[in-house]
Amino acid sequence: MDKTKITVLGGGISGLATAYWLDRAGYSVTVLEANSEPGGSMNTRREHGFLVDYGANSGLDTTPEIGQLVKEAGLKDDWVYADLSGNRRYILKHHRLYALPTQPLAFIKTQLFSTRAKLRLLAEPFIGRSEDGYYQSISQFVTRRLGREFLDYAVNPFVAGVFAGNPENLSVKSAFPKLYHLEEAYGGLIKGLIKGAKERRKRAETSKQSARMFSFKDGMQALPKAIAARLGETVKVNCRVEKVKKSESSYQVLYDQNGQSGQVDPDIIVSAIPAYNAANVFAELDDRLCTHLNQIYYPPVKVLFLGYKKAAIGRALDGFGFLIPEKEKKTFLGAIWSSTIFPGRSRDDTEAFTLFVGGARSPELVENEEGSLNAAVIREFQKIMRIDERPLFIKERIWPQSIPQYQLGYIEHERYFEQFEENHPGIFLSGNYRGGISVSDCIKNSHLNYLRVVEYAMTL
Ligand SMILES: Cc1cc2nc3c(=O)[nH]c(=O)nc-3n(C[C@H](O)[C@H](O)[C@H](O)COP(=O)(O)OP(=O)(O)OC[C@H]3O[C@@H](n4cnc5c(N)ncnc54)[C@H](O)[C@@H]3O)c2cc1C
């Protein structure tokens, strides 16, 4: 095969997965990664007997490409699924934790929602379709279909848990396309959930609600590290891409590796770096692209990892953790009971928890942090969990720009990305600001991008 040269910008899961499939198909691939190690938002450390995931904590096994990638990366034996109790998620309401009901009987019995809110749900199948989900916020959509209480005590905390986001600002169609599709295609969420299951079976896909949650014995970063190891010298670390320029025949990628300038002249570029970095890299090629990319908001998030003696925990750890609705006015968004979900996260006599602070709900807490924030968060957490001893172990990481927010009107960005790709044949824009932010969406989209690249390469 003619060795078409492909340069992938960014060694997070999006860049590495695409690079892996292209390399396997016989193309000459180079990955340029600014950090000293691959992984991006999948970042794990083993410290003092704890396994700390500072970024993504788990993935959902929604699509066959994930299993294929895990096996081919040599991680089949290290792949761990969450304990089934991980399906139980708690929501904080008036200082108490209530399990979020997932079955009709549990929904009828739960005290999380009032009788009025439960009766309101019965009206859902009779509410008509709405117009233009791109300009409709999640909160407008959910309030109209399911009522205000459902927004406040189910969707608001859920959106904080997934996007570190705020349902008032996110576009329902861009951020949760499958949810909007249920209304668009079937006329309602309840009808759609029942009928949509058949469609997914045909595509061999699993819904996010029923997909199994996974990680690896050595944490989430194990996957990008294993892919990078398979790719070998193809992956260049400490290599920051500075500019992409047009050349006579195709493109030039200018980079800095350990203080030394370098250049590659690929036939094809796959950009899998965050939007705010891509804005600088492509500035010379297209001003408007740069404006669109810079408009994408990435709120700051602080991840606080806490380790305690097992005996200090005053309540049963029988779930995934808990999420906090904005109405409850706490300093943090929620907590994952890390050592309950996956094995090997802490020593046998300890428990590990991962807390999230800030996000689009309260960015100022992280931006204007004064020394007392951790103490306030830990105090509130311990009260909810009935813990009256200090943590044995505290670690934190701040992500100044954490997760892209698919806000109202995001479609304008998405349309321009398509236009840019048409105007610049051979450049493909990828990464978690297109098509979904979860690790599983990133892998699925990387596979689609790989197919798009192959299709284009055949025309060269
Ligand atoms: C705190 C946090 C918790 C999360 N939790 C979960 C979770 O539990 N489950 C889940 O499914 N998802 C979670 N996510 C989201 C998910 O981890 C990310 O969306 C996904 O990993 C993004 O992958 P990516 O490759 O698209 O981008 P990134 O991981 O951001 O990778 C981009 C890479 O590009 C590199 N780069 C940037 N600029 C340049 C440049 N100029 N030159 C070269 N390289 C460059 C960066 O160093 C980085 O390695 C979480 C995210 C965060 C931040």
Provide a descriptive summary of the structure in words.
The chain has 460 residues and is α/β, with parallel strands linked by helices. 37% of the residues lie in helices and 21% in strands. The protein contains 17 helices and 20 strands. A seven-stranded mixed sheet has the order 8-7-16-17-18-15-19. The chain has a five-stranded parallel sheet with strand order 10-2-1-14-20. Helix 8 (177-186) crosses helix 9 and helix 12 packs antiparallel against helix 16 (410-423). The two termini are 12 Å apart. Bound molecules: flavin-adenine dinucleotide. Flavin-adenine dinucleotide binds next to helix 1, strand 11, helix 11, strand 15 and helix 17. The site of flavin-adenine dinucleotide has 37 residues, from helix 1, strand 11, helix 11, strand 15 and helix 17.
Quick description:
With 460 residues, the protein is an alpha/beta fold.
Assembly context of the chains? single chain
Number of DSSP strand runs: 20
What share of residues are in beta strands? Answer: 15-25%
In spatial order, strands of the major sheet run 8-7-16-17-18-15-19
Residue share in helix: 25-40%
Poorly predicted runs: none
Mean pLDDT: 94
Distance between the termini: 12 Å
Give the structural class: alpha/beta
Which small compounds were modeled alongside the protein?
A: flavin-adenine dinucleotide
From the alpha-carbon coordinates, what is the Rg to the nearest angstrom?
22 Å
Principal-axes geometry comes out as globular
Summarize the main sheet.
7 strands, mixed
